Amino acid sequence: MTMDYEKKVQEQINQYANNALRFFPPDAHKYWMRNYMTPKMRDVFGVDHFIDMYLSAIPTDKDHVNILSIGSGDGQLELALAQRLIARGQPEFTIHVTELSDIRQQRTRERVAREGLQDRFEFHIVDFNRAFIPGSFDMMFAHHVLHHIVELEFLFDQIAEGLAPDGVFATIDMIGRNGHMRWPEALEYTELAWEFVPEHWKYNFQFNAFHEKYLNFDCSKSGFEGIRAQDILPLLIEKFDFSKFVAGGGFMDVIFDRGYGQSIDMANPGEKALVDFLSRTNELLLETDRIKPTMIFAHMTRKADVPAEPVIWGNMTPGFAVRPVAPSED
User: Fold this and answer.
1) In angstroms, rounded to a whole number, what is the distance separating the alpha carbons of residues 104 and 99?
2) Is the pLDDT of residue 294 over 90?
3) What structural domains does the chain harbor?
């Protein structure tokens, strides 16, 4: 790995070292997820919460299940999953939590210890661009992690090899343009929306700046944010079979997200109506193939000789969701 890579590793660790610097999803984003993504997830996965999407990928007919969390962050999701497994009556399980940052993994250790669940967890510091965790796993999951990975081919090969024969790899992640930029056809609609959204929507809390013109910023310039996002879905299709698949997002999710979305007042009927208008417009553009999605929810298995047809929402197959990239755009 190059010096540039080592610099990005340190930037990535520094980015999450201080919890106070993290922005949680604003009300507008949570509203969009609840009203435009959760119904799709419910239809395909039979659940209303993303944690239960991961829970539903864990087998119920085994005395002991081995679970690998790929990039566990501060461990909130992993702890919640453990608590759900206990409530479900799972007799024995081990969740392997993995993280690049020992700062974040220490937070996980403390969180798990407070709940007295240390015997249910194993802890690993690992850089998934370089290494993997040996073993056979009944379920592996990566929650908003893949868009930070450079060596996707290596990682996906390791996941496929480490999955038990009937194992499931589950993910929720961003699959739009690298650096979370908008593709030109989506940017056209984002910039059009910028002409009529309220002025206070244009303040970006992550940049601490007002943007009169929408800033199509490449987030991968620092750390690994969205470093190969556009390659994720094509490579998943190449390496795995999909059993369940949902996709969404497009031109508007960046308006609702952490940067700009903090400014949106969902208690204001006019602003809430505008969020609905942009969301419904985005759904229509997805259905008519004018734009491609930026987010996926997926359950996958090892490649089979004759794969079963995946359960999908609407016409959005994994292949339909891929945005072809011209050489000039790469």
Assistant:
1) 7
2) yes
3) 33-303 (3.40.50.150)
> Tokens 């929408």 sit at which residue?
214
Residue-level pLDDT at 22: 55
Residues 6+ apart with CB under 8 A from 170: 53, 54, 57, 139, 140, 141, 142, 298, 299, 300
Neighbouring CB atoms inside 10 A of 37's CB total: 21
> Which residue, 177, 49, 72, is CA-closest to 126?
72
SS3 69: strand
Asked whether residue 1 carries a pLDDT value surpassing 90, the answer given is no
Share of the chain above pLDDT 70, in %: 94
User: Residue 182 has what DSSP assignment?
Assistant: P
Tokens of 274: 């505008």
Cα angle 219, 145, 258; round to 5: 50
Q: What's the mean pLDDT in 178-194?
A: 98
The pLDDT of residue 76 is 95
Residue 264 gets which letter from DSSP? Answer: -
Res. 10: pLDDT tops 80: no
Handedness of CA 228, 147, 9, 254 (dihedral sign): positive
